[in-house]
């Protein structure tokens, strides 16, 4: 902490790192003080381009830097636990990119490490921060749609062959942990679970790599049984051309809410239990295409919200908006989907 500001250090200076820099700059009580990358020329160039902050060639040195209070985990997904555990062990707070990690035992160990060290870990799922997301979750939780019947996520992105070649870890089991679902679709899987405010009990799924030459899936379909009784489906792909804006549809016996991108596009409610639901007037809003077709087309608003929230959580000694336990649910479900597709069986999800 210097001049009343928490010092942030970024671990991994790739595609998502500039979004973290913007979010840190947008927070009056945060400052970027250091970066780290195993690719030394890349990391040094990133440090130079961002205020000549300190550069460290390995995570051990970054977490030991006395000016670093919070470590942003921006490494490939299958390395998130290593960075988070090292940071927590050094007494540093953690700001972790999605997905939390790609394996259950690794996620458990990082959550335990943070708890044991008494530090905070804020997790990134920026779609939750959109104002419409909070409205939908509140309405569903309050029972506005009645008895929930269906909760569906249509996650149809486009990623080119060049995208999968753009970094060695992309599209690999070892470091991406999966494909269309674990990397891109995880945002929509998390949002579906969060909006419905429910957990999945069982899943049956099919996955395949239909057109991309990758070991993980580029296309998947899954049937869900929620603990609260609703059914649901998740369709996830990176091989739709040109891709569709993400759509989530929530249905109860007296109403429907549809969210496209981060915007509510339908809100229909019945006046009486057996009446037909009528559409409410929604002010026409622009629907953001987001990262449907381009992994670099990301805005920093969500990250700004989450950095400011983590800083407040540290100052007020409260839980961050997205905790590790909450962030792991999407990964636990995706791992269940993969297991079902691999074994051809209906899979019960663990309660974490
Ligand atoms: N929230 C979002 O919308 C969003 C968008 C893009 C990426 N991400 C997530 O961010 C993470 C990084 O993705 P990316 O697209 O920036 O990847 P990237 O390949 O562009 O960058 C990763 C960087 O980490 C560095 N690195 C690898 N191992 C390291 C280690 N042990 N120590 C230090 N540095 C190391 C690499 O050299 C590289 O510069 C992934 O988990 C991804 O899922 C999130």
Describe this structure in words.
By secondary structure, the protein is an alpha/beta fold. The chain is built from ten helices and 15 strands. The chain has a nine-stranded mixed beta sheet. The longest helix is centred in the last third of the chain and has 20 residues. The mean pLDDT is 96. Bound molecules: nicotinamide-adenine-dinucleotide. Nicotinamide-adenine-dinucleotide binds next to loops.
Task: Give a quick rundown of the structure.
The chain is built from ten helices and 15 strands.
Number of helices: 10
Calculate the terminal CA-CA distance, rounded to whole Å: 34 Å
Number of domains: 2
Number of strand elements: 15
Mean residue pLDDT: 96
Biggest sheet strand line-up: 14-13-12-11-7-10-9-8-15
Unreliable segments (pLDDT under 50, ≥5 consecutive)?
none
CATH architecture of the largest domain: 2-Layer Sandwich
The main sheet comes to:
9 strands, mixed
- Bound small molecules, which ones? nicotinamide-adenine-dinucleotide
Please report the first level of CATH classification, the CATH class of the largest domain. Alpha Beta
Q: What structural class do helix, strand and pairing data support?
A: alpha/beta
Rg is 20 Å
- Beta-strand portion reads 15-25%
What is the CATH fold-level name of the largest domain?
Dihydrodipicolinate Reductase, domain 2
């Amino acid at each position: 902490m210097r001049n009343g500001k928490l010092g942030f250090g970024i671990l991994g200076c790739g595609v998502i790192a500039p979004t973290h820099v913007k979010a840190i700059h947008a927070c009056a009580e945060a400052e970027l003080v250091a970066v780290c990358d195993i690719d030394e020329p890349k990391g040094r160039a990133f440090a130079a381009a961002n205020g000549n902050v300190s550069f460290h060639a390995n995570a051990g040195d970054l977490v030991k830097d006395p000016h670093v209070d919070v470590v942003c985990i921006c490494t490939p997904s299958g390395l998130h636990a290593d960075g988070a555990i090292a940071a927590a062990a050094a007494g540093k707070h953690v700001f972790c990119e999605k997905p939390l990690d790609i394996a259950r035992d690794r996620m458990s160990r990082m959550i335990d490490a943070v708890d044991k060290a008494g530090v905070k870990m804020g997790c990134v799922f920026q779609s939750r921060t959109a104002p419409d997301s909070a409205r939908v979750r509140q309405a569903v939780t309050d029972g506005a749609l009645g008895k929930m019947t269906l909760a569906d996520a249509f996650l149809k992105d486009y990623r080119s062959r060049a995208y999968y070649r753009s970094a060695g870890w992309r599209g690999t089991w070892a470091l991406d942990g999966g494909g269309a679902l674990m990397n891109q679709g995880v945002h929509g899987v998390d949002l579906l679970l969060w909006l419905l405010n429910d957990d999945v009990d069982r899943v049956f799924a099919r996955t395949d790599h239909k057109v991309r030459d990758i070991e993980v899936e580029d296309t998947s379909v899954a049937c869900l049984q929620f603990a609260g009784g609703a059914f649901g489906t998740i369709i996830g792909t990176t091989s739709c051309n040109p891709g569709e804006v993400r759509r989530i549809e929530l249905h109860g016996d007296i109403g429907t809410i549809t969210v496209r991108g981060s915007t509510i596009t339908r809100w229909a409610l019945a006046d009486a239990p057996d009446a037909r639901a009528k559409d409410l007037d929604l002010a026409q809003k622009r629907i953001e295409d987001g990262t449907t077709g381009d992994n670099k087309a990301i805005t920093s608003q969500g990250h700004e919200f989450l950095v400011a929230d983590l800083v407040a959580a540290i100052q007020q000694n409260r839980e961050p908006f997205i905790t590790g336990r909450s962030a792991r649910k999407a990964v636990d479900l995706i791992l269940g989907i993969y297991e079902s597709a691999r074994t051809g069986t209906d899979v019960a999800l663990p309660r974490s």
